[in-house]
Amino acid sequence: MFCYQCQETAGCTGCTKFGVCGKSPDLARMQDLLIYVTKGLSAVTTTLRAQGESIPAHVNHYVTINLFTTITNANFDDEIFYQRVFETLNLKNELLAKVADKTNLPEAALWTATDREELDEKSTKVGILTTENEDIRSLRELIIYGLKGLAAYMKHANELKYDNEEISAFMQKALASTLNDQLTIDELIALTLETGKVGVDGMALLDAANTGTYGNPEITKVNIGVGTRPGILVSGHDLRDLEQLLEQSKDSGVDIYTHSEMLPAHYYPAFKKYNHFVGNYGNAWWKQKEEFESFNGPILMTTNCVVPPAPSYKNRLFTTGAAGVPGCKHIDRDENGYKDFSEIIELAKTCQAPTEIEKGEIIGGFAHAQVFALADQVVEAVKSGAIRKFFVMAGCDGRQKARNYYTDFAKALPKDTVILTAGCAKYKYNKLDLGDINGIPRVLDAGQCNDSYSLALIALKLKEAFELTDINELPLAFNIAWYEQKAVIVLLSLLYLGVKNIHLGPTLPAFLSPNVAKVLVENFGISGIGTVEDDIKLFLE
Ligand code: FS2
Ligand code: SF4
After folding, report:
1. Region for 52 from its dihedrals, namely left if φ exceeds 0, alpha if ψ lies in -120 to 50, beta otherwise
2. Domains 10-195 and 368-540 share a fold
3. Is 351 labelled a binding residue?
4. Ligand number with the minimum distance to the CA of 304
5. What is the pLDDT of residue 510?
6. Which listed site, 35, 161, 233, 512, has its alpha carbon 20 to 30 Å from 433?
7. In CATH terms, is domain 220-349 a member of 3.60.110.10?
8. Is the CB of 261 under 6 A from ligand 1?
9. Which CATH architecture best describes the domain 368-540?
């Protein structure tokens, strides 16, 4: 196996024996094969579009879910990958019959198979290392990881009946382009930046879907203690899953809690009507082993990040959507998108209430509309010097000790600075008492990593309020923590929006070859992190 798509990759170079995340070599090769056949399908759809044919939405959605399923920590179930590869080949073969001229199609578009042995054999021959030139490989993977992140946004938007054929067409064209040996380094760099542009479109679509369906997030205090009734813990990012579970459990005597990236659901007006939606339990994804244990009740994983479960709670862990764990019950949608969560609710009734691990409240809900409502106050605080600088510290949390940098950084920031955050990175500092500036909290949480778009809108609004022409003239610094591929599309989107001098940590991606890293440093001023002391000095210069 060879995988280097996430920040925790072994030795900062690549997982070759077993994934640090828990991905086995067999799972790794089947994920490689799924990406390969999805590229083949994309080459066919791209050719058909050029022929003037339209591609049905279910094909677009199939590409999207395939990409999402291979995101780090989303799905550990080998069987799902065999099933998806066969289904993808069937879809592709149907469409291939409509292609008028097949001579220019790549091998991935023409390859097919009917039994598992053929899949097993092929799966060892289509991995990342089949691209020999390390710069081409680096750019191809950078594009693919960005597309995986974008696929996650699209899937959530699609669940809320928001869709965009142009975004899907681009995703498939870009995927197919990673099979094209004729593309030069410069053309791949251009495609990388175009991925960032379409990433902004995808984030805007998801933002419209979430706020159009559930209202604009508003300032909210979230309880982090527990009640006396049994609970169900919901993790991941899918708001539609949460909504269905809230609706189905409302009169059951069971409480609903969020974990990790589901915390921002509390900020939406639409979910406030549920009295049994009582709080957030625990921290970021990587603490789930201990926190799922002490929660005592069933857990629903709606997306990544799943950690292969301990036997003590495995029978209480359920997955849905792109998530999957062998041996855990997976709940599928029906053709109308309905999911029957009754088994989880019935199990919860037999469980003890969660064990309390902390008490108190955290505050969030500072997505774009809420911050715009406070714009005068914020602008005034900057003009009067009460706020010296904003620090965008969005992204992911993870297991590595080096990530304590972000807690130390937040604590060491001068009191006249404000942190803008989104994603599970926030758990490194959202329970510290960092105070406020004239009533504006010093940590403004816009939501999930999926809501990073809000931070871009806030930056653009500040640019307008201060009548600046360049976003980089703002008193705003970017110190982003990354872990998986959704952070990659956020990064590419920020580059497209013209943001310079982003600091990325705790380590730079292993998939950036020295030459590709050099391009990012020279053109965008991207850098890693140093010590807290040195970095704060540098940022405040
Ligand atoms: Fe956190 Fe994990 Fe959100 Fe990432 S829950 S690292 O996949 O998506 O942020
Ligand atoms: Fe390794 Fe990350 Fe790939 Fe898992 S996703 S195998 S930890 S690089």
Report:
1. left
2. no
3. no
4. 1
5. 98
6. 233
7. no
8. yes
9. 3-Layer(aba) Sandwich (3.40)
